[in-house]
Amino acid sequence: MEAFGLLLHGFAVLLTWKTLVLMMVGLVLGIFVGVLPGLGGPNGVAILLPLTFTMDPTSAIVMLSCIYWGALFGGAITSILFNIPGEAWSVATTFDGYPMAQQGRAAEALTAAFTSSFIGSLVAVLLITFLAPMISSFALKFGPPEFFAVYLLTFCSFVGLGREAKHKTVISMSLGLLLAGIGMDTVSGNLRMTFGSPELLRGVNFLVAVIGLFGISEILLTMEERLALRGHAAGISLRVVLGVWRDLPKYWVTLLRSSFIGCWLGITPGGAIAASFMGYNLAKRFAKEPESFGKGRIEGVFAPETAAHASGTSALLPMLALGIPGSGTAAILLGGLMVWGLNPGPLLFVEHKDFVWGLIASMYLGNVVGLVLVLTTVPIFASILRVPFAAVAPMIVVSCAIGAYAIQNAIFDIWLMLGFGVVGYVFKKIGIPLAPFTLALVLGNRAEDAFRLSMIGSGGTLKVFWSNGLVGSITTLAILLLFWPVIDSLLARVGLTHGTRATSR
Amino acid sequence: MRIPVKAVGAATALLLSTPAFAGWEPTKPVEIVVAAGAGGASDQMARMMQAAIQKNNLMKQPMVVSLKGGASGAEALMYMKSSEGDPNKVLIAYSLIYMLPLSAKIPFNWRELTPVSVVALDQFVLWDNSAGPKTVKEFVAAAKAASAPFKMGGTGSKREDHVLTVFLEQKTGAKFSYLPYKSGGEAATQLVGNHTQANVNNPSENLEVWRAGQVRPLCVFDKERISYTSKVTDTQSWADIPTCKEEGVDVQYLMLRAMFLPGKVTPEQQAFYVDLFHKVTQTAEYKEYMEKQALKPIFLTGKDMVQFLEEDDALNKSLMTQAGFVAK
Questions:
Q1: Model confidence over B267-276: pLDDT tens digits?
Q2: Cβ proximity of A378 and A244 under 8 Å
Q3: In chain B, what residues touch A331 (CB-CB under 8 Å)?
Q4: pLDDT, tens digit, for every residue of B164-182?
Q5: How does DSSP classify residue A290?
Q6: Beta bridge partners of B305
Q7: Nearest to A184 among B62, B72, B151 (CB)
Q8: Could you say which of A183, A332, A336 has the minimum Cβ distance to residue B71?
Q9: Does A188 or A206 have the greater pLDDT score?
Q10: Does the distance separating the beta carbons of B189 and A323 come in below 8 Å?
Q11: B159 shares contact with chain A (CB less than 8 Å)
C-alpha cells in the first residue's frame, strides 16, 4: 500500500533525537496549557508559535502539534476535577466526569478520559492516513444547506435526547441563541444589540461564558454548601489504570460510535464541539439505563472524550488538504504553515511529502507518548483535590480570570465572566440545564449564517434542505431526533419495539 | 517601474537620516493588531512581518500578533482608537478603515490614528470554477441566462467584495446573488465545491486552489496586468490573467495594506516605525511574500501617504454611496 510506505517514510523523518526532544517539550507545555482553564489550545499554540520561526517546518509542526495533543489531554483534567472545561469540547466531559470525581473516582475518570482521547485520536489518524484524498473531497460537498443541517441535527439531538425537561432545554437554548446574536451580523453587515457600546462589538465570547457558567458558579455553589471540594483523591495506581483498560472492551460500541461521529464532524469545520455533545447524547440514548448518566457513569466520560478527540484530530485534515481550519487551534497552525513557507491546499500532499507524512507519523507517536506522560502524572493532578478548598478556590478564581482576560485581552470579559457565574448559579438552582445554553452560544451564529446563506442561494425556498441525498438525510434525521420521545412512545404503543423504556416510565 | 525607483530614493533618504531618530525604541513587546480572523490575508501578512523582524533582528523587543477580528474587524479599529498615546501597538489596516464607519456606523475615523506607511496594494481577481465558463464574455452570458440565482461568494457584507459584485452587475447587466462568508478561505472552498458560481477573492486567497486546477482566474480588477511573470500553475503566471478592462468590463479596484499607530504618539515614535517597516520591505521574506501573494509593491509614508489615504478614502466613499451601502 502506498500510504503505508509513505507513513514509514514519515517515521524515518521523525526518529531523530532532536525531533523526539521537541516532541516531549511540546507535550509537557501542552498539558500545562490545557490544565489552565481558558488558556486552552489555541492561546497556547499562539503564544508559542514565534518559538518555531527559526526551526525547519517539520520540527516546528511536530512541536506545535504536540502542544495541541498535550492541550487536548490536559483539557480533560480541569473538567473532571473542578467542573471547569478547559476547552469548548470538554463541556460534555464534565457531565459524568465531575460526579465521578465527587464520588472519589477521580483517578478512574481521568484514566478513562485519557484513554478514550487516545482511542479517538488513533481512529482519526488512521482515517487521515488511509483516506486523506477521499475525505477532502467529501468535505467539499458541504455548502450552506449541509452546514445548517448538521447544526440543526446537533440542536435537535439535544432537545430530543436530553435528560432534562424539554421546555427547560428550549428556554436555555433560546437564551443562548439570543446572546449569540450580539455583535456584527456577517450576512447584513450591520451591528445588532450592541447599544452603542464598543465592548459589545465583538459579541459574547463562548469561552468567557463557559468559564463563568461552569467554573465560577461551581465555586459559588460550593461556598454555599460546605466550603470544601467534594470527593477524595483516589490513590491512583497501575491497578486502577489496568482496571479501566480491562473494562474497555465492554464499551466498544460507545467508543466506535463516538469515533465515527467525531471523525465525521471533525472534517466539517467547527464540528468538535457538536461532536462531543452528540457523542454523549447518543451514548445515553442507547444505554440500558439512561437515568444513570450524569451521576458518574464511566461511559459518560468515554463517549464525549472519544468523539471530541477524534474530531480534534481529524480537523487537521481539512486544514492541510483545503486550508479550512476545523478548530481554533487548527487556525493558528494554519498561520504557522504560512510562515514556514508552506501553503495548505490540495497540492501540499504532493509537493511536501516529508512534511505531511512527518506530521502524520508524529500524530501516532505524539499520542502514544502523550498517553504515557499524562497517565504517569495523574497522581499529581488528582492530589489537587486533597488541598483545602480555602486554598484552591482563590487560585481557581484567579486562573479563571486570567483565562477569561487572555482570550481577547479585554478587562470587560472578566466582568462578563463573573456575570455568567451568577447566571450559572441561578440556572443550577432552578434546574435549567447549562449545556444547551453554551451549545446555542457557540453554534447559534454559524447556524444562522448557514440558514440565511441557504435562503439567499435558493431564492427563499425550504426545499433546499432536501435538495440532495446528503442534506436531505441529515435534515430528516434531525427532525426524527427532535420528535424522538413522541416516536419512541408511539412505536412502543403499537408494539413494534419491546418497549421496555417506554413502559418502565 | 516607477514605484521601486521611488522606494530606493526613500531608502537613501532614510539611511541618511537614521541617527536623527535613534532616540526612541520600544521598551516592551510590540503588538501587531490584525483586523481579521486567523489565517486570513492580514494575519498572514502580520506573521510574515513578525518572522522578518525576528529573523533579521530589526527590533530588540519581540513582536506579537494580536487577532482582533471581532465584528468584521471593527474590534481592532475601536481597540486602536482607545489606545491613544500607546506606541507599542501597530495596526495592519486595509480598506475597512473607510468602509466600516460608513456601512455599520462605527464611530471611527482613520485620521485619529497616526499613519506610518502603506506597505502593499492588494489585487482582486474574478474567479470561477474550472468547470465553468472560460472567458469573461461566456461568464457574463451564463450569468444572464441562468434561471436559478447565479451565486457570487465573498468576504463579509457591504465590503470590498460586495462593492465589486455590485459594480460588476452595473457594468454587465447580469444579476448575482451575493453570499457573504466569514473569510476569503471559506469563499474559495465554497467555489471549489460548486456551492457558488464565482468569487472576487484576492490572489492569496485563491492561490492554492488555482494551482490545484480547481478554479480559473477570468480577469483582474486593475488598469494593468499583475507584473509577476514566473509560472504559478503549469501553464499560467499572474501576468497571464487579462485585466477586466481588456475583457470589456471596466471595473477597477485596489486595496491598501497600511500600518497605523494609535493617535497622539510622538514624532520620534512614529519615525521609529517608519524606519522599521521600511527595513521590513527590504527583507527577503517581504519580497518573497509579495511575489507569492501577487501583491503590488509600494512604500508610502509622511505627506505622500496622507495624500494617498485622502484620495483613497474619497474613492471608497463614492463607491460605497453608489452601491447604496452607506447607513442612513
A1: 999 999 999 9
A2: no
A3: 37-39
A4: 999 999 999 999 999 999 8
A5: G
A6: none
A7: B72
A8: A183
A9: A188
A10: yes
A11: yes
